[in-house]
Amino acid sequence: MRRLLGAWEAATNGQPQALDGLAAPSAVRQLLAPAPGLPRVIREPQLRRTTPVELDGTSDPPTVVVLCSVRAHPDIWHLDLGWELTLTNYPKHPWRLTNAVAFKDAYFRAGK
Fold first, then answer.
1. pTM, two decimal places
2. Edge-to-edge, what's the strand order for the sheet holding 77-87?
């Protein structure tokens, strides 16, 4: 997850190729899409907590939804992210981000 956050930071700072192999093209578009109230560029993202909330071992390939609590600059903003990761055949990057908006309110209510 830290590698993915670092690649996201690089991508928001003009290096979208940093996400190559770590995120599917649709997830890259989700990560880089402008969102109301959020800065376009993130700096120094810090992973505070990860919580797996949904595992689908019957899908091919298997997927997991992970909640991530992230803090970053500017102005120390806080994000609760729901990311869907898919198992790959690549030892260097065994999990690939396939959905950057896999968010359900129920995940956060259950996790707190």
1. 0.82
2. 43-56, 63-73, 77-87, 95-99
